[in-house]
């Protein structure tokens, strides 16, 4: 999910939660180790990773959305929690178009068992989660440290490396178990450009990828697929169902054969990928399907992403017939709900 223009007070939650991190030590040559700042148990609702947090003492479920610039509440949840709304500059852009938003300030937001005061949330858009979650947690929460997404084992961990880690692999679980792992370089993340971005290859063509736990299904943007020689009219391409997101429009998708998909040292040959219209600054959105089939550490401190394969299908290629005209808009259409 993308938001424009700049929101104010984006640093307050990050700075407060950063106090959870162990104090840095002066000895730069100290051996590298990673300390656990906190962890969030995860419940998978379909392809949505849900975590608990409290709003003014009321426990709520939130979607852990690494693709979201900023944390957000659904309008119905904000109303139920009796939160006061005020106009917000800007709008949200994602699957299905744009949506106007409001801003609210939560007096006490509790996460990682810590109370954080006066936390801003965006409020707006369609009810993406059909009441299953009050909203989503974005990068203003997850950028407080390196983030390990271990969705197969139902947990997200926030880690803080200490000592000299410049030449050390931070994929500690792979190191401990003697597992092979892959790594890629990622962009330097800032408060204003927090998304996790890297590179991969489809049919040998280099593409830019964004890692987004809030998207049910990975997909390649149509123009990027075209550079790799694939269009909706190519041989073997089939309808992939419709996608709904923050906007009101329905976005069609297709399932297309690709000769190869390669990221890091991992390569899949003669595979199928979903393709769809671009909704962000990426060539491919890597969604919760990839996160479930891999254990992933976003090591922002090193500008690297580490991952190991868990087994099973890498991509969610599920399709179902679209609902008839006039059917309820609640929920995904075509089984592919790429919310961003």
Description of the structure:
With 340 residues, the protein is mainly β. The protein has a domain at 2-17 and 34-142: Acid Proteases (Cathepsin D, subunit A, domain 1, Beta Barrel). It is built from six helices and 22 strands. The protein has helices at residues 11-18, 75-80, 139-142, 172-177, 222-227, 288-292; strands spanning 2-4, 33-41, 43-45, 48-55, 58-64, 72-73, 86-94, 97-111, 114-124, 135-137, 146-150, 155-162, 182-185, 197-202, 205-211, 219-221, 238-243, 251-263, 266-276, 284-286, 294-299, 304-309. Strands 4-5-10-6-9-8 form a six-stranded mixed barrel. Strands 2-12-11-21-22-13 form a six-stranded antiparallel sheet. The chain is globular. The protein starts with a strand and ends in a 31-residue tail after the last strand. Residues 1-11 and 321-340 have low confidence and may be disordered.
What is the mean pLDDT? 84
- Major β-sheet strand ordering: 4-5-10-6-9-8
Q: Fill in the CATH topology of the domain at 2-17 and 34-142.
A: Cathepsin D, subunit A, domain 1
CATH superfamily of the domain at 2-17 and 34-142: Acid Proteases
CATH-derived architecture of the domain at 2-17 and 34-142: Beta Barrel
Q: Main beta sheet, described?
A: 6 strands, mixed, barrel
- Which structural class best describes the helix and strand composition? mainly beta
Global outline: globular
Beta-strand percent range? 35-45%
Identify the CATH class of the domain at 2-17 and 34-142: Mainly Beta
Separation of the first and last Cα atoms: 4 Å
Number of helices: 6
Number of strands: 22
What proportion of the residues is helical, as a percent range? 10-25%
Would you list the SSEs in sequence order as H and E? EHEEEEEHEEEEHEEHEEEEHEEEEHEE
Please state the CA-atom Rg, rounded to the nearest Å. Answer: 20 Å
Low-confidence stretches: 1-11, 321-340
